[in-house]
Design goal:
alpha/beta; 15 strands; 7-stranded parallel beta sheet; Rossmann fold; single chain; binds NADP nicotinamide-adenine-dinucleotide phosphate; about 15% strand
């Protein structure tokens, strides 16, 4: 079996690559990588394997240099003789930024880039399966405080909190138009945060938001709002099990479901003990985010009641020195808080029934194994370049 995989230098794609590289029935894995040349491509692959001490078999895993943003990509793939016999494609690459300044890039990579891959796919004679890594959040922001099922999406009328989830929805719609149903597998992870194993997580993507909450301590979000969070090892294992197992559906949530759901209060309670020097976590109504942003801009409007929480404002002044630092954090954090408020849980019974995988550990349990990594996260770097 020969595989083409995108997103291997990322959080989820890296873990999927490691699992696939250990499978004997897979002979070759070609990885789309952004790099100046093949040498740099190999170097980037080496880092993926090095992180947790996995073996990099250079006779099995190869870089294919390319960029999803390049309009020449489909032709490059079509004309690459090494890629004629691909049986399985896993498209896990995406631009996952929530910030508005990345909107154009997100669109180019997630919709345009996917289309380049799809143009190439029709040339592949031996393709058996196309796996599109989507996201459960394509259900949109009108769906609140309930369990969401796979068949509810994609819904073209869904309204989105961020461009990213819109592009993932459009991507899924486009994939469904091109790939025949019997060759299609769509996996939709919920929120992937950290790793449940006691190892360094491949990425701090959502751990960054937790590290930021841990720093600001006064949090404008409903602490009881249900959250569907999974660790990356559960996500990658689930996807690989689905690919190689018997499936009764072509679309699956990769999620905590109700059995392993969590909320912000449970997660912050778990980490509070490790940071005794900080003020206790305090939760405010979500609307307070505007007051906090105004305060950080020195534009306090009449009716601003943040001064009721002076001990936290003093703590912020000491911790952040410049209010502009806090503005950077709020800008990065706001979309995450908006997602938390939605209270969406994604049903995972299809996944559990078809793969037999055990329910994941809830985030408020496994997060304690990430405490040391949480301490080292540079929250400003994450806010600027998520
Ligand atoms: N993380 C989550 O919570 C979550 C939840 C639901 C769904 N997902 C989905 O899961 C997939 C993986 O997400 P992730 O968290 O692993 O993302 P990630 O860590 O940000 O990794 C993104 C990957 O995509 C690659 N990529 C980005 N732009 C590219 C381009 N122009 N050309 C080629 N490759 C490009 C990156 O390569 P470089 O290293 O070169 O940048 C990287 O390998 C995505 O499809 C995402 O939508 C993620």
């Amino acid at each position: 079996m020969e595989i083409f995989l995108t997103g291997v230098t990322g959080f989820l794609g890296g873990e999927i690559l490691i699992l696939l590289s250990k499978k004997k029935e897979i002979k070759k894995i070609y990885c789309l990588i952004r790099a100046k040349n093949e040498e740099e491509g190999y170097l980037r692959l080496e880092h993926v394997f090095e992180l947790h001490g996995d073996h990099f078999d250079k006779n099995k895993v190869f870089p294919i240099i390319g960029n999803l943003s390049d309009t020449t990509l489909s032709n490059e793939l079509i004309n690459n003789n090494r890629l004629q016999n691909i049986n399985l494609i896993i498209h896990a690459a995406a631009n996952t930024s929530f910030g508005r300044m990345y909107d154009d890039l997100v669109q180019t990579v997630n919709i345009g880039g996917l289309n380049h891959i799809l143009q190439w796919v029709s040339h592949l004679k031996k393709l058996e399966t196309f796996v599109y890594v989507g996201t459960a959040t394509i259900c949109g922001k009108q769906v609140t405080n309930r369990v969401v099922f796979e068949d509810e999406s994609p819904n073209i009328n869904a309204a989105h909190l961020v461009k990213y989830s819109y592009t993932k929805m459009m991507g899924e719609i486009n994939v469904r138009k091109v790939i025949p149903e019997d060759k299609l597998l769509i996996v939709r992870p919920s929120i992937i945060m950290g790793d449940s194993r006691p190892i360094i997580p491949r990425s701090n993507v959502i751990l960054w938001a937790l590290a930021t909450l841990n720093l600001i301590r006064l949090i404008p979000v409903n602490p009881y709002s249900d959250l569907d969070i999974i660790p990356v090892d559960f996500a990658s294992e689930s996807i690989v099990k689905l690919i190689f197992g018997k499936r009764n559906h072509n679309t699956y949530h990769i999620s905590s479901g109700t059995e392993s759901k969590t909320n912000t209060l449970l997660v912050t309670n778990q980490i509070a003990n490790y940071f005794p020097e900080k003020p206790p976590f305090k939760f405010l109504n979500h609307e307070f985010i505007s007051q906090m942003k105004d305060w950080a801009r020195n534009r306090i409007k009449p009716g601003n009641t943040l001064s009721d929480y002076n001990e936290y404002l003093d703590y912020w002044k000491q911790t952040f020195e410049e209010k502009s630092n806090l503005r950077i954090l709020f800008a990065g954090l706001e979309p995450y808080l908006n997602f938390i408020e939605l209270g969406q849980i994604f049903d995972n019974s299809r996944l559990i029934n078809d793969t037999g995988i055990a329910y994941p550990e809830p985030a408020h349990e496994y997060v304690k194994r990430s405490i040391s990594y949480l301490k080292n996260i540079d929250v400003f770097e994450g806010a600027i370049d998520p």
